[in-house]
Specification:
The longest helix has 7 residues. Helices cover 14% and strands 34% of the residues.
Length: 205
């Protein structure tokens, strides 16, 4: 049987979605040695009943040579037919999506995991965040940040239509437009901010 799987370059995913897809920092990767465990993403096109296109599995490192590694698979694949537990896997630093070493740098994925409401103008149509408002989070809505994000071009009718709103992580919006990121650390509720082109900054309104 010819090889059915390839390893995903997770650093490319991390660059496209830095606020929602965690990739270990260089300081963590540089600490990896024989005996450490890392998680890799194995892509596979083989049709299966689960509908999977990839499996995320752990590998125990047996050899390190600069940014090239060898290790043994520490999981039993669910559907990939030509690899099994303890098989040898060769990989590079760009394939490592998780390690057993504690992260030393700020976890921005976790920081911006709290949810927000955002219009489809921003999330789906790709318009920048032109206005944002923060209310006091309700205890009934777990992980709700209190933020509502708009393009500023929505009509009243548009905003009153619930189908035009999305409930996602702050990180999902930041992946598309992160110019408002400095406001997220401000403990300021019940205020609205609007983007001012002349100042290239948000102003409180």
């Amino acid at each position: 049987m010819s090889k059915t799987w390839t390893l995903e370059d997770v650093t490319a995913i991390g660059k496209d979605a830095p606020y929602t897809f965690y990739v270990p920092s260089n300081s963590v990767v540089n600490q990896l040695k024989k005996g450490n465990s890392v998680k890799l993403m194995f892509n596979c096109d083989v049709e299966n009943e689960h509908g999977y296109s990839a499996e995320r599995m752990w590998v125990i490192i047996t050899e390190v040579n600069n940014e090239c590694y060898k290790g043994t698979l520490d999981n039993d694949p669910i559907y990939i037919p030509d690899i099994e537990y303890q098989d040898l896997v060769e990989f590079q630093a760009k394939h490592i999506m998780q390690t057993d070493i504690e992260e030393t740098e700020e976890d921005i994925v976790g920081k911006y995991f709290p949810r927000c409401y955002v219009t489809s103008h921003v999330l789906k149509d790709g318009l920048p965040v032109g206005q944002l408002y923060r209310e006091w989070p309700s205890e009934e809505e777990e992980n709700y940040s209190g933020w509502a994000l708009f393009s500023g071009l929505e009509t009243k009718e548009y905003l009153e239509n619930g189908e035009n709103w999305n409930y996602v992580s702050l990180g999902a919006v930041l992946n598309q437009c992160d110019r408002f990121i400095s406001l997220l650390d401000i403990e300021d509720f019940e205020h609205e901010y609007s983007w001012d082109d002349s100042m290239s900054a948000y102003v409180k309104i």
